Amino acid sequence: MQHSTLIAPSILSADFARLGEEVRAVDAAGADYIHIDVMDGHFVPNITIGPAVVAALRPHTAKVFDVHLMISPVDLFIADFAKAGADIITVHPEAGAHTHRTIQLIKSLGKKAGISLNPATPVEAVDYLIDDLDLILVMSVNPGFGGQSFIRSQLDKIRALRRRIDESGRQIDLEVDGGINFDTSAAAIEAGADVLVAGTATFTGGADAYAGNIRRLRGA
Ligand SMILES: O=C(CO)C(O)[C@H](O)COP(=O)(O)O
Predict the structure, then answer these.
(1) Can you tell me which residues form the catalytic site (predicted)?
(2) Does a structural domain hold residue 1?
(3) What is the pLDDT of residues 136-147, one digit of tens each?
(4) Which of 73, 82, 88, 79 shows the shortest CA–CA distance to 35?
(5) CATH number where 29 lies
(6) Does ligand 1 come within 6 angstroms of the Cβ of 9?
(7) Best mutation site among 33, 38, 141, 183 for ligand 1, i.e. most ligand atoms within 8 A of its Cβ?
(8) Which pLDDT value is given to residue 16?
(9) Is residue 25 part of a domain?
(10) Structure confidence at residue 48 (pLDDT)
């Protein structure tokens, strides 16, 4: 089955001093989603963006805000990110005791819900949740930092999840994040990914290069 590929620049790799400008630049360059990596220094060893920054960025683009919460406990902050302008909110099953309840909370706020699988988290983590999911994110690096190398064992996981999604008959984005570059993007797409998160590869070469980078990631 042929899927079109969406590109989601991760603003973790953008120039933070001029973040609004960077968001406008990747929007103009053809990004489909703006992927926002939220880290708390507890669930992952880095601290990034809170709801106030998401709200400040919201007026810069009408593109989908795809907010990946790498925070624990996660439930406490979901309403804040929904209010700040998130369209999709993705959580890790390890970030709270009751993932099903967390997914229902996201949906109850009128937002799309995603689940993120770390490299060592098995595909079975989506069991009993798939009917409520809008996105499954395969982390192809251990979360925390941009600029890491793609973990190739995740290709099997992408294939297995593609089968589960197709069998479900539901519209669920299969997103891959970490080490996506002009070489690894083709392998991820071939395995069944339809949204590629790319920080370093998008934000290379200055704003004039972003459109070309996005086209290359898409495989065009
Ligand atoms: O958030 C991440 C890890 O937690 C990322 O992998 C990041 O979003 C993408 O960075 P890069 O394209 O440089 O791998």
Answers:
(1) 37 (proton acceptor), 177 (proton donor)
(2) no
(3) 999 999 999 999
(4) 88
(5) 3.20.20.70
(6) no
(7) 141
(8) 78
(9) yes
(10) 96
